[in-house]
UniProtKB/TrEMBL annotation:
This is GAF domain-containing protein. InterPro entries: GAF (IPR003018), GAF-like_dom_sf (IPR029016). Residues 24-152 form the GAF domain. It comes from the Bacteria.
Amino acid sequence: MNKDNAQRNTVIDALLKNETTDWQEVLSTVISAFDCTTGTIHFLDEKSGLLKVQAHQGIPPFLIPKLSEIPIGKGMAGIAAERREPVEMCNLQTDDSGVARPAAKETKVEGSIAAPMMLNGKLYGTLGIAKPVPYDFTKEEVSDLLTIGEKISKKISS
């Protein structure tokens, strides 16, 4: 783990130790730590089976209703939740795989990743971040994002 990773984890650990968690602050910290501009945290609502937004940053206001509740299997967050593995796009603007929903292009982001937040094999939600430029996240960054998701899951489950 390099210095950036250690620093990332230390700051996030400190935020998650607070008795009450400011999810917006956690998200802002994650976005900043990965040099991104946009992101979302969704928690899985076990009753409805939907991913419900807990925090968002850099999302155009007209898109908020579209991402407030996401079905498992729809869009990057929904597919990451369904597959229980990260879903990544180097350039969301030019992607034609059908993974990203058409409205997602309105975010104007390019390099993006959605990671499942898992703990002991159980899904708690998703964590998504993105950059305004084409970008492939490194294996180390993906691993760090999954670790952060695990820490968030631990906080949610406690």
